[in-house]
Design goal:
CATH class: Alpha Beta
Order of helices and strands: EHEEHEH
Structural class: alpha+beta
Family: Belongs to the CutA family.
Helix content: 25-40%
Number of domains: 1
Protein name: Divalent-cation tolerance protein CutA
Number of strands: 4
Shape: elongated
GO molecular function: copper ion binding
Low-confidence stretches: none
CATH architecture: 2-Layer Sandwich
CATH topology: Alpha-Beta Plaits
Strand content: 35-45%
Number of helices: 3
Length: about 110
């Protein structure tokens, strides 16, 4: 089974650097840096607004919890919004590709 992780970053450089590290460590097989998003939020009793860069990361469902934890550890925000979910359907070739992930093997 496959999984996706969504996470906003403060800028493209941080998004690319952390995605590259997760690729190197084999927690993910792919990161789609989607581009700038406008974030409106409520934080510590204050309303805020920011420009962020959204990223969608692809992984194996068996790695999801640990990949989310690793991304949270690497993220520059004190409290990053790292959201992961298992996919109900995935094409056969993509499923085979994602199943080959093996963190710690390099």
């Amino acid at each position: 089974m496959s999984a996706l992780i969504y996470c906003p970053f403060p800028n493209r450089e941080a998004a690319r650097a952390i995605a590259s590290q997760l690729l190197d460590e084999e927690w993910i097989a792919c990161a789609n840096v989607l581009g700038e998003v406008e974030s409106l939020y409520q934080w510590e009793g204050e309303r805020g607004q920011a420009s962020e860069v959204a990223v969608l990361l692809k992984t194996n469902a068996s790695l999801l919890d640990r990949a989310v934890a690793r991304l949270s550890d690497l993220h520059p925000y004190d409290v990053p919004a790292v959201l992961g979910w298992k996919c109900d359907a995935v094409g056969g070739e993509a499923a085979a590709w994602l199943s080959k992930l093996s963190p710690g093997s390099n």
